[in-house]
Amino acid sequence: MTEASPVLPPRADALAMIAAATPPLPAAELRTLDNECARFVFRGREAAIGPAGEACGVALPRARGAYGEVRNRRAIWLGPDEWLLIAAGEAPEGIAAAIEAATAGVPHSLVDVSHRQLCIEVSGPAAATVLAAGCPLDLSPAAFPVGTATRTVLAKAEIVLARTGPDVFHIEVWRSFSAYVWHYLDEARREFRAG
Amino acid sequence: MLLIACPYCGESRPEAEFRYGGEAHLARTPDSLDDDGWTGFLYARGNPKGLHFERWRHIHGCGRFFNAVRHTVTDKFVTTYPAGEGRPDLSSPEFAEKVAEASR
Which of A24, A28, A86, B66 is in Cβ range 3.0-4.6 Å of A126 for a Cys bridge? Predict the structure, then answer.
């Protein structure tokens, strides 16, 4: 899919106009990031998991709710045989070729979802509180520590939520839901605006 | 909101992440069914007032189907277990307390 969609703007621009029009709020800052990166959903059984992780450069985590990170690449556990692979700032072709070569002959699936979703970062001391306006998970540091990632819901949208710092969350959301999620979070953080 | 223990995620997660999947342990045996048998397979369900074996899917989580035992009056869960396992023996001492609690 190389031609520009007549309906949707190019993925990097899908949220750009909305984000540019949103005033900053340090208590829970919203920003878009990593939107020119490669994303894959990998599914496979035991024999395919190790080689895929090696080819990807970051071992696929086996612990539920965990993600692994090596430099710009991240592997998020989504299910017992399902991972979301993200490579910031990279094109998908090289990674796909490497993983396909490593898992040749072993049943698996590797789907390029680079264009499917966007990443929104929520950061600041009120980040968890703002997310809690729409996400029913317990986001306290004890229950959802740094290094945790999971698929969950935010209001009516499905998201993949990762805690990358004590006050930093990354939200992977389908592109068509991104404006909804952005506005929802912006609305939720209004109470932290002074005055 | 219910908290449902997903056997694959190993923890209780909010109901909003799940979808209900109807009665569990329905055997699909098309070769041995006549029209009445098919009708029963497709449409007839137990609908008990009490403990119900049912399917759930953790669709906004790990994506897996699993089975659960829920009390249809109190909405309390007795147990959840991976799809493919047989019905748990609820008369065993292991479940006695949970069954009593779910029925209260």
Answer: A28
Q: Are A164 and A146 in contact (CB under 8 A)?
A: yes
Mind listing the domains of chain A with CATH numbers?
A: 9-36+115-195 (3.30.1360.120), 38-113 (3.30.70.1520)
Q: Which domain holds residue B72?
A: 3-103
**What pLDDT does A35 receive?**
64
Among A105, A97, A81, which residue's Cα sits nearest to residue A38? A97
Instruction: Please indicate whether, in this complex, the C-beta atoms of A136 and B1 are within 8 angstroms of each other.
Output: yes
Q: Per the structure, how many domains does chain B have?
A: 1
- Report the CATH number at residue B45: 3.30.2270.10
Q: What is the ipTM of this complex?
A: 0.86
Q: Record the tokens describing residue A31, joined without a space.
A: 């920003």
Average pLDDT, chain B: 92
Q: What is the DSSP string of B37-53?
A: HHHHHHH-----SSEEE
- Could you give the C-alpha distances from B32 to B3, B11, B23, B25, in angstroms and in order? 39, 40, 21, 17
Do the beta carbons of residue A108 and residue A52 sit within 8 Å?
Answer: yes
Q: How far is B45 from chain A (nearest CA, A)?
A: 30
Residue among A60, A167, A56, A178 at smallest CA distance from A119: A178
What is the token pair recorded at A184?
């929802």
Q: What is the CA radius of gyration of chain A?
A: 17
Residues of chain B positioned with their CB less than 8 A from the CB of A79:
8, 61-64
